[in-house]
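Why do we bother with a discrete structure alphabet at all? Because it lets us treat a fold like text: something you can write down, compare, and reason about line by line. To make this less abstract, here is a complete entry for ABC transporter ATP-binding protein. Read it the way you would read a sentence in a foreign language you are learning: slowly, and without expecting to understand everything at once.
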Amino acid sequence: MDQVCIQIRGVCKRYKSAQEDSLSEVSLDIMQSDVFGLLGPNGAGKTTLISILCGIIPVSSGDVRFFHNGTPYSNAERKSRIGFVPQEYAFYQELTARQNLDYFGAMYNLSQNRLKERREHLLEVLGLEKAADKKVGTFSGGMKRRVNLAIGIIHQPQILFLDEPTVGVDVQSRNAIIRYLQQINQGGTTIIYTSHHMSEAEEFCKNIALIDHGKLIAAGGLQHLKAEHQVENLQTLFINLTGEEYRD
Ligand SMILES: Nc1ncnc2c1ncn2[C@@H]1O[C@H](COP(=O)(O)OP(=O)(O)OP(=O)(O)O)[C@@H](O)[C@H]1O
């Protein structure tokens, strides 16, 4: 049976000095083992919501609760159970890929054996083995994205948040990243991801939420939403619900 893993209720966020809410009364359930797409135009509030869910910034009001197999757990426990792959590169350019993974693995208190096992596994499956001892600053964009991903999952989180994990990469790296994410999802990892690539999101996500101007405007199963709005693809659904005008 499907179990809720994140329950979001009435979440509002207004940044200090901001005149408007960046999130307004957002309520959502995210199910365990889902691939959940958080979609919306520029400035919609996607990064803000992910940052709240990862505990990086606080809510202004509202409530977020986490569960595993139906049992709630505390915010303190969240750190070891979730992984976060941010939009910006989160590694040290001057360190090698192997050194970066060692550094971030140590931050999660992985034992030496476990860290070595995870590090070598990720270097291999993400095609970074040959360059593992080169400084990450010298890597291509696609390789840097794959290092960013490896760091976010070094501790094998139950829930993985990814903020535009394939931005600026070539088709080969994009495929490698998506294939690997599908693989870990099949192993039970819940994936919550943002993207502006509608065709990628359509292929990848089971459920989606569409946010615009900080408000939830649609949520549910992708196939169900397409049928409900009588559209053939996610891009048309997105344009129909968010409009054509620029978001500056
Ligand atoms: N630290 C901050 N202080 C003030 N306002 C902020 C801050 N961070 C984001 N905002 C504002 O909150 C709103 C939502 O921004 P957010 O980055 O969450 O959107 P997004 O959907 O992730 O956009 P994008 O697709 O461009 O990454 C925007 O209006 C943005 O300007």
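What the structure line is telling us, in plain words: The mean pLDDT is 95. The first helix runs from residue 46 to 53.
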